[in-house]
């Protein structure tokens, strides 16, 4: 089976030759995998682990994003990011919040509100056609698209954003509306240019903590639900399916999101009993497909190879005819044993263990160390 046929077979619950796979790892983990197999770039890595999805991207042509003497870089909204280093790796963290302390919409610097015109979409159809020719499912977007809590917090502060949602703060609401329009317009322009060739779009919103929801239903229905419905309806009008990244325990929101039109729940973080993949399948599996679910906080990072094998085999039994795109519950983190990563994809049946010249000749794709900055904006 070609990867796209496998993915659509899983989504439609019509069966497949093996469970579809979607990989995600930090740059350090991706480099570790590449070093292990003697690979040179991300496309080679995705081929080896058997990832069935590929992404298209418009070309950024907007104002030059500044780099500062302290090593920080500018985001689309005027915020800045700087690497926070830890043993074995580093993460970009917000280091300057331009909307912090703003108490009136009149004081917002809207010159830093990006627009969809900051991107060139003319190569989108060509990108889609190339991916379709090589047999993969076509995706567009990132977990940072929409993302009204997490990403606005990077420009205003987490505590302030949570207060804003309770108080209906007009500053936050204006930023939220601008953010929604930016990503809605971008996604629609991509779908228009693609001419029906995009299979899945990808957005995100971190609605959960480790064991509970972040906001209550009244806030969700007031501020989030109308925007998600408008977005899901637009995506469906172009023949695509909507995938939404949600960290944490988000079970309470799933019935409402299904009503609004969500198709795929990514990345399924199984940290509480009610978030167990079997429980979610039983309760929502007829209406919602899942992506991810192999825990990066427990099984992959600290379990044995046998533990990983058991988790993957369990999912293969649960989703015999489809409903799950197998992968980690977030980016695989630094410190995860390479043996566990190999076991994940080997047990899924997707790993290519004999690396031949055709794979090593592939030059497409980014280096493992490169970060798609748009995930943070």
What does this structure look like?
This protein is of the alpha/beta class and 377 residues long. Helix content is 40%, strand content 16%. The strands form three sheets. The protein has a seven-stranded parallel sheet with strand order 1-7-8-9-10-11-12. A three-stranded antiparallel sheet has the order 3-4-5, with no helix packed on it. A two-stranded antiparallel sheet has the order 2-6. The model has no long low-confidence stretch (mean pLDDT 95).
CATH topology descriptor: TIM Barrel
Mean residue pLDDT: 95
Give the topology string: H per helix, E per strand. HHHEEEEEEHEHHHEHEHEHEHHEHH
Strand-residue proportion: 15-25%
The radius of gyration computed from the alpha-carbon positions, rounded to a whole number of angstroms, is: 20 Å
- What order do the strands of the largest sheet run in, or round the barrel if closed? 1-7-8-9-10-11-12
Q: Provide the domain count.
A: 1
Can you name the CATH architecture? Alpha-Beta Barrel
Q: What's the β-strand tally?
A: 12
> Which of globular, elongated, flat, extended, rod-shaped describes the shape?
globular
Number of helices: 14
Task: Report helical residue fraction.
Answer: 25-40%
Largest sheet: 7 strands, parallel
| Poorly predicted regions | none
Name the structural class. alpha/beta
| Straight-line distance between termini | 36 Å
